[in-house]
């Protein structure tokens, strides 16, 4: 990390503390499609990304570019209402500064959520999938260009076992089924072809989407523990007769998001 980027993160963290208070943040949340309202449930301060120099200018409908700092279920959180996807500007490291700021605010963990397509017949739209691992199908990496040896980040335990166990326990206590599987990162913005889905299934993939993997890599680079959950909004290409589109994703996301919100709230109570 360059001195300039570290300084920028330090300045932004100080700016955020001046508006949201000095108490350290415990956990970060990146919200995917259908969960934007969760930021409004936080008892705290919402800051537009536009007020934070260097934060991404998110251009995807269905996302809310606000950073909300405050209490949710008794836990001090930083909620990112939107992320910049690789397909917007071709930058896999777009979320590096926001996550560096999260670390500077005191957080030690990050939960990432997303909307994804299922490649498994037993996981349908409206279901949830806890990620056990991922496949970086693109081969892109947000750490390309990093000059220090810190760029050689081990990814064996990228999806933290303790966080996953707590999320599983939260789902079980609520009686909400929570599948587990491997997520494949596809760059987008076009959706996958049926042939690509057959390939990803052969490689061991269970869900496919256009986000999350860059944030996981960045989180591990920064020393944050991370876990991720997908809201399944559709069956992947060639596995059903439904017409896949972004509008369809936005329409279906709330079905799983309501269950995911309950799990996240229950999970947070276990951290108090």
Can you characterise this structure?
α1 (3-20) crosses α3 and α4 crosses α7 (246-269). The protein contains 7 helices and 9 strands. It has helices at 3-20, 86-89, 96-104, 161-174, 194-203, 213-221, 246-269; strands spanning 27-30, 43-48, 66-72, 75-80, 109-118, 128-135, 179-185, 207-209, 225-235. The mean pLDDT is 92. Strands 5-8-7-6-9 form a 5-stranded mixed beta barrel. The radius of gyration is 17 Å and the shape is globular. Helices cover 32% and strands 23% of the residues. The protein has a single domain, classed as 3-Layer(aba) Sandwich (Rossmann fold), CATH 3.40.50. With 272 residues, it is an alpha/beta fold. α5 links the parallel β7 and β8.
Brief sketch in words of this structure:
This protein has helices at 3-20, 86-89, 96-104, 161-174, 194-203, 213-221, 246-269; strands at residues 27-30, 43-48, 66-72, 75-80, 109-118, 128-135, 179-185, 207-209, 225-235. The protein has 272 residues and is α/β, with parallel strands linked by helices.
CATH second-level architecture: 3-Layer(aba) Sandwich
**Alpha-beta classification:** alpha/beta
**What's the overall average pLDDT, rounded?**
92
Number of strands: 9
- Quick one: biggest sheet? 5 strands, mixed, barrel
Rough shape?
globular
Helix/strand order: HEEEEHHEEHEHEHEH
Q: Give the termini distance in whole angstroms.
A: 32 Å
Percent of sequence in beta strands: 15-25%
Q: Poorly predicted ranges (pLDDT <50, ≥5 residues)?
A: none
CATH homologous superfamily, by name? Nucleoside phosphorylase domain
Number of domains: 1
Helix content: 25-40%
- CATH C-level class is Alpha Beta
Say what the CATH topology is.
Answer: Rossmann fold
Strand order of the largest sheet: 5-8-7-6-9
